[in-house]
Specification:
Length: 137
Amino acid sequence: MESTVTEFLNFPFETDEAYQQGFAELVAGGALQGTTEDERDYIVQRSKLFYFNSAVLRTTGRSLTLEDVLHHQEESNVPAQTSFNATPQESRDGVEPRGTLSFAELKELIESGKTDKIPNNRQIPHDLHASNLSYFS
């Protein structure tokens, strides 16, 4: 596993065209809007891990988890500039962020009208895209 983590940490994400294109699509889709610097770093790191697993390790049958990378860094004292953080340190409202909400928590947020606090929830516009209208004319 150590060689896989080392391969991941040395992977040239900055020059890999497929990764860069995919990440650009994430950014264009608003994945980084309204996020803190720690949250942006976390999203970038998770996107790299996802890409590495699906594009590089897919054919080998191996996979890499965030925990694998963190464990390797703790054991080898990886310098901070190449470090891979576990989660953003603080969310916008000062509470430790969580990966998922329980059904009860989700229900409470919806019932109280706080849908903006639901992770990965965004407003979808109610209007049609103008280019689709010409098709039906």
